[in-house]
Amino acid sequence: MSRLVVVSNRVSDPRKSAGAGGLAVALGEALSANGGLWFGWSGTIVEGGTPGEGEMHTHHSGNVTLTTVDLCREDHDSYYLGYSNGVLWPVFHYRLDLADFDAGYIGGYRRVNQLMARKLMPLLKPDDIIWVHDYHLIPMAAELRAMGCKNRIGFFLHIPLPPPLILAAVPQHEWLIRSLFAYDLIGFQAQSDVEHFSSYVGKEVGAEALDKHQFRAFGRKVQAQAFPIGIDVDEFAALTHAKEGRDMYERMKKEFSRRRLLLGVERLDYSKGLPQRVRSFRELLKNYPENIRSATLIQIASPSREALDTYAGLRQELESLCGAINGDYGELDWMPVRYIHRNVSRKRLPGLYRVADVALVTPLRDGMNLVAKEFIAAQDPADPGVLVLSRFAGAAEQLKEALLVNPYDVHGTAESIQLALQMPLIERQRRHQQLLERIRSQDVHWWRKTYLDALAACDPE
Ligand SMILES: O=P(O)(O)OC[C@H]1O[C@H](O[C@H]2O[C@H](CO)[C@@H](O)[C@H](O)[C@H]2O)[C@H](O)[C@@H](O)[C@@H]1O
Ligand SMILES: O=c1ccn([C@@H]2O[C@H](COP(=O)(O)OP(=O)(O)O)[C@@H](O)[C@H]2O)c(=O)[nH]1
Q1: Which of 202, 207, 227, 304 is geometrically suited to a Cys-Cys bond with 217, CB 3.0 to 4.6 A?
Q2: C-alpha 221 – ligand 2 centre gap (Å)
Q3: For the segment 338-348, what is each residue's pLDDT rounded down to a tens digit?
Q4: pLDDT of residue 453 exceeding 70
Q5: Which of 9, 29, 131 is nearest to 79 (CA)?
Q6: Molecular function terms in GO for this entry (predicted)?
């Protein structure tokens, strides 16, 4: 059997609890199945190091070999903070207003992709299957091919691909898309992303569509398809009953026996729609005062990309909104919002999800959103909570039995939250059962297998 080589910016030991971020969680689960090599950034930034250079480290965790490369400060800042999270992340999440098109970033982005390719190339065996992940590493296959790599190489984009006219705002858009043609298979989260890819390559580079999923351009053929990422449903449900999950459940259940719990869990990121959500909650208290002294919003917003000004600004905005709502509505023995700016261990989250009456997963744009799926997996089928889900999350293409909302519509979202709080048991059970079936039929094992089977079936160019 061929060895699987996964390449991603974030690498984390599958046997340890991953930090916040769905990619590391999902790849850890996918790699543990058959083992392989996980290659990427070590997480270490070397002050004063040489651009384009980085020490390599290897360690083993069960059947997975983890090989990582350090980055010097200059490379990290231009590749990770600058081009990946200052240009690609905002544009791909439709936020041209937040993009910082500094011409200096692209050099670091290319340099780090070249460095990663150079370090990976000698580790490869001829029949390895290479699976590259996410926007940090779009040119990775082109760099490997330039070094003579003939292996099958697949790519998976974890974030949305915007429509052509938004994508075209990136000064290097054509180069990025040309780089994608060095892969054999491009995986997207949602059907809408595939449609955007197809219309971009048709309109902007005159690609020939060989069929619905195959495109020829730049002298190469590539296949593009949606493979919605999932979670390990049984593993996550089991965490609900493990010690940390159970402790959390019992503690919170006691506290919320006479109150209603609304829950939000995410990285503190502008794509997640946090200020809009808090405003909707405020609207709920204003329009449905029976929720005062009862409905409490626990908002976990774990620190993310704090070196970027847009993230620091968002934190201030959110803290001021939470402070204002607590000041206006709070009582000595009840605060409407509990805002936590820390990462909560993934082992404790299932217990919290299970106590929640309503999960608020209302991003303005999201590639998938694994929290939505984790919430469903953690529910008690006899008395499940309700998922309020943004129609702009990739997960909305699958999770049709959630209460779908437009997060920009603060009033409409408040109405849906009230509907969720009032939903009769029988309807909650029916929706939950259907949602559970959906996340089970397309779980993380399905995702890995379907993607890798499709990559293996691609005609090598
Ligand atoms: O690595 P960070 O900069 O700390 O950010 C964390 C991850 O955020 C993004 O996650 C995406 O992948 C999830 C799993 O497919 C998906 O559910 C979610 O919608 C995406 O936002 C990012 O794409 C990852 O590369 C980051 O590691
Ligand atoms: O305090 C936190 C916040 C989030 N998460 C985890 O981080 C992942 C977030 O993934 P998602 O796809 O929802 O969004 P991303 O952060 O990748 O954009 C999920 O597995 C969460 O359980 C966590 O462990 N602790």
Answers
A1: 207
A2: 35
A3: 999 999 999 99
A4: yes
A5: 9
A6: alpha,alpha-trehalose-phosphate synthase (UDP-forming) activity
Residues 6 or more apart whose Cβ sits within 8 Å of residue 64:
14, 31, 32, 35, 36, 37, 38
Output the domain CATH number for residue 284.
3.40.50.2000
366 flagged as catalytic: yes
CB of 329 within 8 A of CB of 355? no
Q: Are residues 240 and 297 in the same domain?
A: yes
Question: One-letter amino acid identity for 235?
Answer: E
Mutation pick for ligand 2 pocket among 244, 349, 354 (CB with most ligand atoms within 8 Å): 349
366 lines ligand 1 (CB under 6 A): yes
Q: Express each pLDDT in 193-230 by its tens digit.
A: 999 999 999 999 999 999 989 999 999 999 999 999 99
Average confidence (pLDDT) over 329-350: 95
Per-residue model confidence as pLDDT tens digits over 84-101:
999 999 999 999 999 999
- The ligand minimizing its distance to the Cα of 26 is 1
Question: The dihedral of CA 140, 142, 146, 152: what is its sign?
Answer: positive
**ipTM for the assembly:** 0.99
Express each pLDDT in 160-170 by its tens digit: 999 999 999 99
Whether residues 288 and 360 share a domain: the answer is yes
Report the DSSP beta bridge partners of residue 224: 186
Look at the chain and report how many structural domains it folds into: 2
Pairing of strands 358-361, 260-267: parallel
Catalytic pick among 134, 232, 269, 366: 366
Same domain, 42 and 189: yes
Task: Compute φ and ψ for 277, nearest 5 degrees.
Answer: -65, -45
Residues 226 and 326 in one domain: no
**Claim to verify: residue 226 and residue 356 sit in the same structural domain:** no
Check if 336 has its Cβ closer than 6 Å to any atom of ligand 1: no
> Under a CB-based contact definition with an 8 Å cutoff, are residues 405 and 388 in contact?
yes
In ligand 2, the atom with minimum distance to the C-alpha of 20 is 7
Structural domain that includes position 35? 4-230+444-457
23 lines ligand 1 (CB under 6 A): yes
pLDDT at 54: 98
Say whether both 217 and 271 belong to one domain.
no
Say if residue 318 is in the same domain as residue 220: no
Average pLDDT, the chain: 95
Q: Cβ of 287: how many Cβ atoms within 10 Å?
A: 12
Cα of 34 vs centre of ligand 1, distance in Å, is 23
- Would the pLDDT of 417 be above 90? yes
Cβ–Cβ under 8 Å, residues 254 and 391 = no
